[in-house]
UniProtKB/TrEMBL annotation, chain A:
InterPro entries: 4_helix_cytokine-like_core, Ciliary_neurotrophic_fac_CNTF. This is Ciliary neurotrophic factor. It comes from Merluccius polli (Benguela hake). One of its GO terms (molecular function) is ciliary neurotrophic factor receptor binding. Coiled coil: none annotated. GO terms for biological process: ciliary neurotrophic factor-mediated signaling pathway; negative regulation of neuron apoptotic process. Residues 1-20 are annotated as: Disordered.
UniProtKB/TrEMBL annotation, chain B:
Keywords: Glycoprotein, Membrane, Receptor, Repeat, Signal, Transmembrane, Transmembrane helix. It comes from Merluccius polli. SUPFAM superfamilies: Fibronectin type III. PANTHER family: INTERLEUKIN-27 RECEPTOR SUBUNIT ALPHA. Residues 862-876 have a biased composition (Pro residues). Residues 817-828 have a biased composition (Basic and acidic residues). Belongs to the type I cytokine receptor family. Type 2 subfamily. This is Leukemia inhibitory factor receptor. The lineage of its organism: Eukaryota, Metazoa, Chordata, Craniata, Vertebrata. It is a single-pass type I membrane protein. Residues 787-841, 853-991 are annotated as: Disordered.
């Protein structure tokens, strides 16, 4: 993990002309994945009953398989990833609102600091993936979630904790997915450049 | 509306269960009897159930006719367990009867059935239809649920929660945080537990989780345990003289977020209390005079009141734009106020000035005060200044601090303190104290030193760099007769300081030295006092230096004011164990005169080094110890004397204590001749040094030795004379006793010859024949050894080996006086010896069988018993001749004991003394015959085969037997001469 972290930092520290867009996105995705893992760990420490719990239900953020063909191109894959990350940002935004409402976010602990970190990193990753899209100007980097389901006030504290846990798992999943996808795209782009 | 509080205990429920059947039967029988006997009561109709799940209350309303008392029974529907059965009074209101029942567990936990009947005394109606309040464990609700959700509970109270298990799953446990709780089953899918005496929750509440039998989490709830609000310390004040700010200390309710305490001040919302705040505050735009704070949360509310006038609660804000205008010795502070209302407010301001860790506070007052002057500052000093103000009238509290920094300007330095120290010659040094920051008033750029002789009108000026605080001077060419004035000025960027002048004092050798007093250090320093001197118009200077230092010595000094006649020299300028010479000078514009001198140690120590050159000198039986003086620098204290020790092994024995420190010697008397080691230690009040040690080995006293020798010689001489005199007087008796007349022998033939000893070299064949045969010749059983010496002599031979290195000859004396016939002599051989031994009467006797060392050693063997036992094995250094058996002198071996096997080698045995030899012996004299080795080489001790036995000689002689040759030799020539002389004397007497 430390080695991976060091590699990501090295990429981010490269001068802009030498750093490709995909390389920067890969590095950001790896950092995001690492920080999402840390955030989940901190939440588990706070709510110890979640330690061995595997939530039921599918993904919160889901992409229709119809949107992907048999052999999607780079643009399609980046576009889907970008959309998923926007939903993740929306979930994180809703989560923050609910926790602040519960005054959990008012606390200034390590968990709250890491949550802010993850949000900032996710926004940067969205910006980085947007430039990889064929028409960057049309892509949004704002949260794609109205929080209608979660912030209607009917959700109990226990349900909120369970939902928060699912959201954090979702963030971790999509950060990992982004890291892998962008790495493949980056590798392919490098091979193409070499050819 | 009638209300009945529920039975809060499960024990009561169980009791109801046990009496359930019995009660129902009784009531039914009574009811039937009553019905048949009286008018029927109306059966309650239209029973309606209404649940308030937050309060766990069940409201029951019905139409009951004229009856006002009813029997009410509530059961858990699924298990048909009675949880409530009582006769209740419920008067009719608006045509309906009402009753409210509070459930012990949440109403969602399970379904309840309710029935009623009217009662009038003993008369009862029929039971109403059963009304059921469905719980969340109804089969049509299949999910797992836990109730209540997010309850807010007072700390210390209890909470009952139930878990409804999902259809088709098994119940496992309920955990309160991590504690597994005891549960009670309410229905097929519902389980309930109660947590008593709950502790306050953490920020995110207390988790209660329901697990399945497979330990899978089914559902859960969060309980928020806390306290009702209890604000304290409400205070309201104004900072802008218009609005009001009220503050109070909130209680930590352990409830956060939407459950946190909501505050209102005079009905205006002040928001929720942040639990992280130590002080909660609320602002109102105008001063009200009276305020009421209401704090409220889910567990209760609390209120506080406060009243005050505005002018009595002024808390000024911090001065704005605080600036300073610095000067060299003062500064001006200026500031503004954020609110114009302050212009008319009488203020009191405190200014705190801090420099070098020291803080001074000054206060100023005035209406609308916004400027003050700070005096008594020092040049070129950085000050930290902060200002705070309060209302001068009806002071409430100091306002907020505002701070700034002030650095004052530069000014000319002060005159440095000056002194001139003289050495023994015309040299010396001008010294001045370095100026402190407070005295320099800026960075010192240098010093200007001037030597001026008023009489000679000679002036000499030098510039000294900064950081140097002394300068050497030579007065050889200046005012040898008159006085010289030294002047020093310090310089900085602002200018030159006033001059500091001192008249150079005269040399100590030029003035009459005052008496030196001894001063004792106290508290690590010296406290000096003196009589006031009228000439000390410029005060005094006290100068001290190391008294053991002779040239170019470091000097310390201090100035004392004219009116002061005492001073304490601080210990930081002094060292322990150093003798300081202290001089007091009076200073005036015209002279610097030496007034008084002291010397002393700040602290005495043991001497650094022991006495040098410790020497010893023996004077007969006395030993004188001498040493030299310890150097002054090494004394480290006033010497009180010396202690002389005698080293006795590792310990020292004190033999003298010399209390005179000037002692340089000590004599230890009457010592026996031996080796001695002495240690001399000097001591001060702090103790004695490690000591010097010297050793001496005494020699014998020469005169006593000579005296002893003379006395011994005189005594011996007297004794000899006495013996000689007695012998002379008794010479006849001596002759008769020791030298009787012997008849002359009768000799046939011509035996005349020249008298004297005849030395015959023994022939080689005269040696004892060494028998090579190992067998024992029985014919030689009679062979005996004729000893040549008497027993004493033989014993002496046994005790110590004979030196056979001397050349040996056999000496025959021809002055034979024996009358017996002389048997013809055969050449020396073993055979001849044997034949002579075989004869019945022996005329020839061995008179001098001179044996070698090895032979004598053989004789020295201790005798063994003749019982046939084998002798012990030979010792390590036993003679070789004994070990061989066959290599010994066969003829000298004693025959074996009778009966012993002849063929067996005879063990070595001692040689008995033969009688003939005994009869013929004379005391300690040996026969006159002897023989000597032909050459020293043949008599080598290491050779066993060396000839060591003489041939037989005649003993038919009555000559006076000479003493043993060894004895003669040991006594020396003198003894031999004396014997000759005695012989001659006796001969002369005989004749």
């Amino acid at each position: 993990m430390a080695e991976q972290d060091g590699a990501a930092d090295a990429v981010l520290d490269e001068p802009a002309p030498r750093r490709s867009g995909t390389g920067r996105a890969v590095a950001l995705a790896r950092l995001l994945h690492q920080e999402c893992g840390h955030l989940l760990q901190l939440y588990r420490e706070r709510e110890s009953f979640l330690d061995d719990h595997t939530p039921e239900g599918g993904r919160i953020v889901s992409l229709s398989p119809d949107t992907l063909g048999d052999d999607p191109g780079v643009e399609e894959r980046v576009g889907l990833l970008h959309a998923a990350l926007r939903q993740c940002l929306g979930l994180l935004h809703c989560l923050t609102l609910r926790e602040v409402e519960e005054e959990m976010g008012e606390l200034e602990g390590e968990y709250e600091a890491m949550r802010k970190n993850v949000r900032s990193r996710l926004e940067h990753l969205l910006l980085s993936t947007r430039v990889l899209l064929p028409q960057p100007g049309e892509a949004e980097v704002t949260p794609d979630n109205p929080c209608t389901e979660e912030v209607d006030g009917e959700m109990g504290s226990f349900a909120l904790k369970m939902w928060t846990y699912r959201v954090l798992l979702e963030l971790l999943h999509w950060a990992d997915h982004a890291s892998l996808t962008l790495h493949v795209i980056h590798t392919q782009s490098q091979e193409t450049e070499e050819v | 509306m009638a209300t009945h509080m529920p039975d809060r205990g499960f024990s009561h429920i169980r009791k109801l269960k046990s009496h359930n059947v019995w009660l129902i039967c009784m009531l039914l029988s009574l009811s039937a009897t009553h019905t048949h006997c009286t008018d029927a009561l109306d059966v309650p109709q239209g029973v309606v159930l209404s649940a308030d799940r937050s309060t766990q209350q069940l409201s029951i309303s019905w139409l009951g006719g004229a009856a006002i008392t009813f029997d009410l029974i509530i059961l858990r529907t699924e298990f048909n367990e009675t949880v409530f059965y009582e006769t209740v009074t419920a008067p009719q209101e608006n045509g309906m009867h009402h009753w409210t029942w509070t459930s012990y567990e949440p109403l969602e936990c399970t379904s309840r059935s309710v029935r009623l009947r009217s009662r009038d005394g003993q008369k009862t109606s029929d039971w109403s239809d059963t009304r059921i309040l469905e719980g969340m464990d109804h089969p049509n609700k299949k999910d797992s649920m836990m109730y209540p959700q997010d309850p807010v509970v007072l700390a210390g109270q209890h909470t009952t929660v139930c878990c409804i298990v999902e259809e088709g799953k098994d119940f496992g446990s309920i955990r309160y945080n991590s504690t597994v709780m005891n549960v009670t089953r309410l229905s097929r899918r519902s389980y309930v537990t109660t947590k008593f005496n709950q502790a306050p929750s953490r920020e995110t509440g207390t988790n209660v989780i329901c697990y399945s039998g497979m330990k899978m989490m089914l559902t859960g709830t969060v309980i928020f345990v806390g306290y009702p609000p209890l604000p304290t310390g409400l205070e309201c004040e104004t900072r802008d003289l218009t609005s009001v700010l009220c503050q109070w200390s909130p209680r930590n309710t352990h409830l956060y977020g939407r459950r946190a305490t909501l505050n209102t001040l005079n009905g205006r919302d002040c928001g929720k209390t942040n639990q992280n705040q130590r002080l909660a505050e609320c602002r109102l735009p105008e001063w009200a005079g009276n305020w009421t704070l209401v704090a409220k949360n889910a567990l209760g509310q609390s209120s506080l009141n406060y009243s005050a006038q505005l002018t009595h609660r002024v808390h000024p804000v911090a001065p704005a734009n605080l600036t300073a205008i610095p000067h060299a010795w003062n500064a001006t502070l200026q500031w503004d106020w954020d609110y114009p209302t302050y212009d008319l407010l009488a203020l009191i301001c405190q200014v705190e000035i801090t420099s070098d860790g020291h803080t001074k506070t000054r206060t100023f007052s005035g209406v609308g005060l916004r400027s003050v002057a700070l005096l008594d500052l020092f040049p070129v000093v950085e000050y930290n200044v902060r200002v705070s103000c309060g209302a001068q009238q009806h002071f409430w509290k100091w306002g907020t601090w505002s701070k700034t920094q002030v650095k004052t300007g530069i000014d000319v330095p002060e005159a440095p303190a000056l002194w001139v120290s003289r050495d023994e010659d015309n040299t010396g040094k001008v010294m001045w104290k370095p100026l402190t920051q407070r005295q320099s008033h800026g960075e010192i750029t240098g010093y200007e030193l001037t030597l001026w002789s008023p009489e000679d009108k000679v002036q000499h000026t030098e510039t000294v760099l900064p950081g140097i605080n002394e300068h050497p001077i030579n007065l050889t060419h200046m005012a040898t007769a008159g006085k010289v004035i030294a002047t020093v000025k310090a310089k900085n960027a602002a200018g030159v300081s006033p001059p500091a002048s001192v008249v150079i004092p005269q040399l100590l050798s030029d003035v009459e030295p005052p008496t030196v007093s001894r001063v004792v250090g106290a508290d690590g320093g010296f406290s000096l006092s003196w009589a006031s001197d009228a000439n000390a118009s410029n005060g005094y200077v006290v100068e001290w230096r190391d008294a053991s230092c002779l040239h170019r010595c470091p000097v310390s000094w201090t100035q004392v004011g004219a009116g002061t006649t005492n001073v304490s020299i601080a210990p930081d300028t002094l060292q322990a164990g150093v003798l300081y010479s202290i001089s007091l000078y009076s200073c005036s514009p015209h002279a610097s005169a030496l007034l008084q001198r002291w010397e002393g140690y700040m602290q005495e120590l043991v001497p650094l080094r022991s006495v040098p050159n410790l020497m010893t000198n023996q004077d007969n039986s006395d030993i004188q110890l001498t040493w030299r003086e310890i150097r002054l620098a090494d004394r480290r204290g006033y010497l009180l004397g010396y202690r002389v020790y005698l080293n006795m092994g590792p310990q020292l024995k004190l033999i003298a204590k010399l209390s005179d420190p000037l002692s340089r010697s000590y004599t230890v008397k009457n010592l026996p001749v031996s080796s001695y080691k002495f240690t001399v230690k000097a001591y001060t009040s702090a103790g004695e040094d490690s000591g010097s040690t010297t050793s001496i080995t005494m020699e014998s006293y020469t005169d006593w030795l000579l005296l002893e020798m003379l006395v011994s010689l005189g005594t011996m001489t007297c004794f000899l004379f006495l013996v000689f005199f007695i012998c002379y007087k008794k010479r006849k008796w001596v002759k008769k006793a020791f030298y009787p007349d012997i008849p002359e022998p009768k000799v046939t033939g011509d035996w005349s010859r020249t008298q004297g000893p005849l030395d015959v070299k023994p022939h080689a064949n005269s040696m004892v024949h060494i028998v090579e045969e190992s067998g024992w010749d029985s014919s030689k059983e009679k062979l005996v050894v004729i000893p040549e010496e008497d027993e004493d002599e033989e014993q002496g031979v046994r005790d110590e080996p004979v030196d056979t290195d001397e050349p040996m000859t056999i000496r025959y004396y021809n002055q034979v006086v024996d009358e017996r016939p002389i048997r013809p002599r055969y050449p020396d051989s073993s055979e001849s010896s044997s034949s002579s031994l075989d004869s019945a009467r022996t005329d020839v006797t061995y008179t001098g069988i001179q044996t070698s060392g090895s032979s004598l050693n053989f004789q020295a063997e201790p005798p063994f018993p003749h019982d046939g036992q084998q002798p012990p094995p030979p010792q390590g250094d036993f003679p070789v001749a004994l070990a061989g058996g066959a290599g010994g002198y066969r003829p000298q071996v004693q025959p074996a004991a009778p009966g012993q096997d002849p063929g067996q080698a005879a063990p070595p045995q001692s040689f008995p003394e033969p009688l003939p030899a005994k009869e013929g012996s004379f005391g300690c004299y040996q026969p006159q015959c002897s023989w000597q080795m032909d050459s020293p080489g043949e008599g080598d001790e290491g050779s066993i085969e060396a000839p060591s036995m003489g041939s037989p000689t005649s003993v038919a002689s009555t000559q006076f037997l000479l003493p043993r040759e060894e004895e003669e030799r040991s006594e020396g020539e003198g003894s031999s001469s004396a014997t000759t002389w005695l012989h001659n004397l006796l001969s002369s007497t005989k004749s």
